[in-house]
Amino acid sequence: MASPLLQLSDVHRNYRVRSTPLRRHSGEVHAVNGVDLVVRPGETVGIVGESGCGKSTLARLLVGLEQPTSGTVSWRGDDVSGLNRAQRHHFHRSIQLVFQDPHASLNPRRSIRDSVAEGILTHGLVPRNQVEDRVTELLSQVGLNAGYLHRYPHELSGGQLQRIGIARALAVEPQLLVCDEPVSALDISIQAQVLNLLNDLKRELDLAIVFIAHDLDVVQHMADRIVTMYLGKVVESGPCEEVYGTSAHPYTWALLSATPRRAGSDRERIMLQGDPPSPVELPTGCVFHTRCFAARAECSTQSPALLPVAGATEQHSAACHFADEIAKSSTSIPQSA
Ligand code: SF4
Question: Residue 278: what pLDDT?
């Protein structure tokens, strides 16, 4: 197995918040709460979970836009916090973020040529007199012709803008793309085109991708491995086929059962009740116990570790006291004691 490109070890990211008339609680928001994650060259890791589960904070940690409160982010085996200036420069170039809203990520007063050329010039990747040729080549890679070079963001559709966002990311020749809900702002008819483009680019350029989304069908289309997050924690991770076929955590099961493609499958539909608890006051024990259909008495006091699922591949882990039982129950919901 290839050595990790990027590795997170017990990473936490907390924010201090004050109480306001609209917010009752002051204290620490636990946005990312002890995450371990490995991304290897050429693989796509899908990260799923409801809004507010910490996915976007994780994306910002991965690309170095946020620093962990504690824990370690390593790039090719080196702790990022200990990199020297030149190494840090290389790290920031090697990981690029593709945003959910490409419109917001582009300067409306800059032409497409100038926006895409920015990273090439900053990193001195080609001589100045070859920049336009390089931008034209990048546009071609994302399915756009040279006619877009001198256009401005307001002249482009959402799908075209997202292609420009991807071209900008590719301009600095990254090894890893972190895509944060890259198609959720697009029409359904355009989503498949952008997803297929990302898959093609991954193969052509041997890219690794971290693909963050709340739509599990979209993630299945993209990912080799999937990571489920709840309240800032990884609650399940494993090969995509295995997690989708025999999910070992009730939360993953509930998310999967709610996807349209699985509505008619033989697994029972789980309706998650209520909203996730406040990330300022995390529940004791298992963080999911307040909404879990399979919770038992010990779940409210004992926190489950992320452990390998019995009988599964060693890469399939779940943070549930009853993961083995959940994984075996292919057609019916395990009953609470
Ligand atoms: Fe549900 Fe208990 Fe498993 Fe948590 S540990 S997911 S509450 S069954």
Answer: 86
